[in-house]
């Protein structure tokens, strides 16, 4: 993959007198000039509200917004752009499905299946649904190698769950789940499947049709686009049968005093003025990633993760978490009994930005038997020098805390 660092203005600033080494792309990615420029260009030449104006600017803004819907569909292999719903991000997409599908599909005593590696945004909406419907929430455990336990998964499916959901890639472990196989098994059990693609779509080629997931969700800000834009990809037949999530302008066909009929897909699920700026930025991000090639992006990150795992393993008293085999560009660790927050603060003083905490995955933290971890995550702009800077900063922390070489 070509060196892209010069495309990212923020990477050229200094932090505490050091070059910024940004290793928190799982939280949010930095933005290339191409995305920033697209947003400036949108406001400089195109801004108007969409789907309502008859004048030229409004027509063009609507065309720009709808063109991105088609680009999103192509990027993730969704057969029908009408099954692409723009949302604020992964969290909103999951809440939409839990609330709307949940209302019609889940009854008292039914089962919903989740896994122990979910981000809170793919757990709490299902907890809320289970509570509201008096349904059972079943959490599938993980193996010793931090994969979804297939035997446990099959046992959970014997309960004929109404909804099964799991993440494509873990934001803590880097585990890449076998989505097509898990989906097929869930479908055989009669379930509807939602896949959390927040840590997958930015990092590897994804073909939603090949995976056959009923719902697939992701966030733009984790793939070079602005915050506040993301997509819910749904099978149109399922979306059609679901009640609206939010009511308001643009989602209706006809409104009477006490009732209304609703707009066809995708507009039924896009009440109110949408994030047009965000969609424009997402389109630019998709074109940027397409030009790099998602196979190359994936290979670049996995090579960096392998290098990081090798180098980190040489640090005394450092514990790594996650699967031994193939994994995404996510590396979680602890260093002796130094609190991960202290670790993050010390490496920050060297210009290295890593995440520390429970990563919105408290059930997983309990299974790892820690309260928190430190985490480095990689993206297109990271290099082996970034990994070297992390290792040097961690060595400094280890010395500061008195964990000298044995
Ligand atoms: N699902 C996964 C797997 C995630 O990693 C995240 C965010 C979300 C859902 C929520 O995405 P949002 O865009 O709606 O907020 N993960 C992280 C993280 O790992 N550190 O900060 C946010």
Summarize the SSE layout with pairings.
Layout: E1 14-15, E2 18-19, E3 21-22, H1 33-45, H2 56-75, E4 84-87, H3 90-105, E5 111-115, H4 124-133, E6 136-140, H5 150-157, E7 163-167, H6 179-188, E8 192-196, H7 208-211, E9 215-219, E10 230-234, H8 236-240, E11 252-255, E12 260-262, H9 276-292, H10 294-312, E13 318-321, E14 330-335, H11 340-348, E15 352-353, E16 355-357, H12 362-368, E17 373-377, H13 384-400
The structure holds ligand 7TS.
Residues 26-27, 89-91, 119, 121-122, 167, 171, 196, 198-199, 219, 355, 359-360 line the site of ligand 7TS.
Structural commentary:
- The chain has 406 residues and is α/β, with parallel strands linked by helices.
- The chain has two domains: 5-30 and 294-400, Aspartate Aminotransferase, domain 1 (Alpha-Beta Complex); 35-290, Aspartate Aminotransferase, domain 2 (3-Layer(aba) Sandwich).
- It is built from 13 helices and 17 strands.
- It has helices at residues 33-45, 56-75, 90-105, 124-133, 150-157, 179-188, 208-211, 236-240, 276-292, 294-312, 340-348, 362-368, 384-400, and strands at residues 14-15, 18-19, 21-22, 84-87, 111-115, 136-140, 163-167, 192-196, 215-219, 230-234, 252-255, 260-262, 318-321, 330-335, 352-353, 355-357, 373-377.
- The strands form five sheets. The chain has a seven-stranded mixed sheet with strand order 4-10-9-8-7-5-6, sandwiched between helices.
- The protein is globular and about 70 Å long.
């Amino acid at each position: 993959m070509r060196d892209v660092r010069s495309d990212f203005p923020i990477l050229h600033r200094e932090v505490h007198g050091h070059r910024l080494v940004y290793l928190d792309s799982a939280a949010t990615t930095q933005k290339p000039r191409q995305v920033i420029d697209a947003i400036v260009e949108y406001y400089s030449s195109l801004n108007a509200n969409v789907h309502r104006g008859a004048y030229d600017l409004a027509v063009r803004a609507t065309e720009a917004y709808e063109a991105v819907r088609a680009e999103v569909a192509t990027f993730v292999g969704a057969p029908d752009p009408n099954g692409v719903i723009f949302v604020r991000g992964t969290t909103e997409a999951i809440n939409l499905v839990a609330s709307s599908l949940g209302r019609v599909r889940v009854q008292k005593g039914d089962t919903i299946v989740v896994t122990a590696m979910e981000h809170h945004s793919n757990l709490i909406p299902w907890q809320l649904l289970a509570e509201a419907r008096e349904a059972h929430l079943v959490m599938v455990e993980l193996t010793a190698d931090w994969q979804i336990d297939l035997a446990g998964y099959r046992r959970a499916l014997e309960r004929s769950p109404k909804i099964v959901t799991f993440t494509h890639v873990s934001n803590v472990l880097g585990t890449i789940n076998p989505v097509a196989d898990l989906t097929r098994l869930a479908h055989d059990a009669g379930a509807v499947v939602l896949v959390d693609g927040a840590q997958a779509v930015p990092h590897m080629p994804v073909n939603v049709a090949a995976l056959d997931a009923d719902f697939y969700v992701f966030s733009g800000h984790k793939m070079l686009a602005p915050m506040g834009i993301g997509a819910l990809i749904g099978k149109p037949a399922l979306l059609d049968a679901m009640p609206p999530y939010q009511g308001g302008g643009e989602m209706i066909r006809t409104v009477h005093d006490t009732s209304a009929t609703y707009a066809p897909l995708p507009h039924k699920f896009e009440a109110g003025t949408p994030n047009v700026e965000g969609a424009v930025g997402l389109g630019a991000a998709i074109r940027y990633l397409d030009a790099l090639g998602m196979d190359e992006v994936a290979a670049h990150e996995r090579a960096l993760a392998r290098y990081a795992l090798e180098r980190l393993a040489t640090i005394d008293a450092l514990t790594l978490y996650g699967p031994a085999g193939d994994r995404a560009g996510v590396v979680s660790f602890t260093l002796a009994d130094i609190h991960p927050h202290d670790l993050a603060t010390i490496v920050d003083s060297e210009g290295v930005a890593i995440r520390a905490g429970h990563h919105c995955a408290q059930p997983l933290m309990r299974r790892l038997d820690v309260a928190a971890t430190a985490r480095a995550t990689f993206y297109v702009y990271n290099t082996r020098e970034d990994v070297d800077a992390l290792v040097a900063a961690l060595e400094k922390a280890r010395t500061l805390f008195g964990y000298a070489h044995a």
